[in-house]
């Protein structure tokens, strides 16, 4: 029973009212997440409770420091624009001790947010407008954080998008082959060796200063944006664990990789997987509406590179985790990470075939004054 696994945690947070129910939310790959229902003098109040994955996040205090700084900045920026922040930015619930994170007797870390009602994070977007709204939401996220000094943020996962380091980790996993899977993956391994130079392009440009360092979300899947069920507008970016210094190309690339794919991230039938150019266009329109004006010419001109790099990087990460014994991503079968890797590899092949079209669409939107 879910309640028995969290009942010792609930009294430690400043939840209002009496506990009524819990539901585990299973869409995330990293943390365990629970939707709590409380009754506060006849009024139903909802919260989100999360158990932080310490294998992924080695220093949870740094994760929470980033989240607190970023949400405070977003809240202040919204208020300056005359917008009520209540439904537009995550609100942390404090512990009884006055912090924003709890460490229990077993050494596990927990945090809680006020639940935003009448809003949904879609794994699969239901309407064309949603693609535009997702792009606009992540663009607004970067716009409102453009004045935040990115260097003040902690690297919650060091070298998260350092594809050079990711490649070295991939090579090390192959060499160690801790569960005996690498020997059957010759074609997959060669796929990433062939794209090694391309994967390093954003890292190289950040180091040279060609691309500026920005506050980036680094996990810009469509299900990390809440869509208001009444207005169909994107209202809040969620899942801020990986907010770190980075490149705008990372956020754009990952959002397109996930949201504009014609199939799920772990689709087994490779014939179903391709980049949907209409979804790409809608997302790009929304993103540029919010970012065109403060992103540099170099950033805007290289946005499709972000799609290639992040798709290739994630495919390689899935394969690395498969070779390493499935230690990072949650899996529902022994071959789940391999299926994910194959799916992303197929998506990348299609992205490479459509790269010229992606640039054409991007520059058409710019000329039209998005």
From TrEMBL:
- Where does the record locate the signal sequence feature? none
Q: Which Pfam families match?
A: APH
Give the domain of life: Bacteria
Which residue intervals define the domain Aminoglycoside phosphotransferase in the entry? 22-263
Q: What Gene3D superfamilies does this protein map onto?
A: 3.90.1200.10
Please give the InterPro entries that the UniProt record associates with this protein. Answer: Aminoglycoside_PTrfase, Kinase-like_dom_sf, Pseudomonas-type_ThrB
- TM region positions: none
PANTHER family, A to Z? AMINOGLYCOSIDE PHOSPHOTRANSFERASE DOMAIN-CONTAINING PROTEIN-RELATED, SLR1880 PROTEIN
The entry's protein name is Aminoglycoside phosphotransferase family protein
């Amino acid at each position: 029973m879910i309640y028995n696994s969290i009942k010792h945690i609930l009294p430690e947070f400043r939840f209002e009212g009496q506990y009524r129910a819990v539901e585990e939310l299973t869409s995330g790959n990293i943390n365990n997440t629970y939707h709590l229902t409380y009754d506060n003098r006849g009024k139903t109040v909802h919260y989100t409770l999360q158990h932080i994955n310490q294998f992924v996040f080695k220093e949870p205090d740094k994760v929470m420091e980033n989240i607190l700084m970023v949400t405070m900045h977003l809240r202040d920026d919204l208020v300056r624009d005359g917008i009520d922040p209540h439904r537009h930015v995550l609100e942390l619930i404090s512990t009884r001790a006055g912090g924003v994170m709890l460490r229990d007797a077993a050494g596990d870390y927990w945090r809680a947010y006020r639940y935003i009602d009448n809003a949904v994070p879609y794994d699969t977007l239901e309407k064309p407008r949603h693609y535009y709204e997702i792009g606009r939401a992540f663009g607004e996220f970067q716009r409102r954080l453009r004045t935040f000094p990115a260097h003040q943020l902690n690297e919650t996962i060091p070298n998260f998008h350092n594809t050079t380091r990711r490649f070295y980790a991939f090579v090390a996993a192959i060499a160690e082959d801790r569960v005996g899977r690498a020997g059957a993956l010759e074609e997959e391994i060669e796929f990433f060796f062939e794209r090694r130079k391309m994967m390093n392009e954003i890292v190289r440009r950040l180091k040279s200063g060609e691309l500026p360092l920005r506050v980036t979300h680094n996990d810009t899947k469509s299900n990390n944006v809440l869509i208001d069920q009444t207005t169909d507008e994107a209202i809040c970016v969620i899942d801020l664990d990986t907010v770190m210094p980075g490149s705008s190309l990372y956020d754009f690339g990952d959002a397109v990789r996930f949201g504009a794919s014609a199939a799920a991230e772990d689709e087994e039938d490779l014939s179903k997987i391709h980049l949907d150019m209409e979804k790409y266009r809608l997302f790009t329109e929304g993103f540029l509406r919010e970012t065109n004006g403060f992103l540099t010419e170099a950033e805007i001109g290289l946005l499709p590179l972000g799609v290639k790099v992040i798709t290739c990087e994630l495919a390689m990460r899935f394969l690395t985790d498969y070779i390493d014994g499935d230690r990072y991503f949650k899996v529902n079968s022994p071959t789940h990470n391999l299926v994910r890797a194959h799916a992303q590899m197929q998506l990348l092949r299609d992205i490479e075939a459509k790269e010229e079209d992606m640039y054409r669409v991007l520059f058409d939107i710019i000329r039209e004054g998005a």
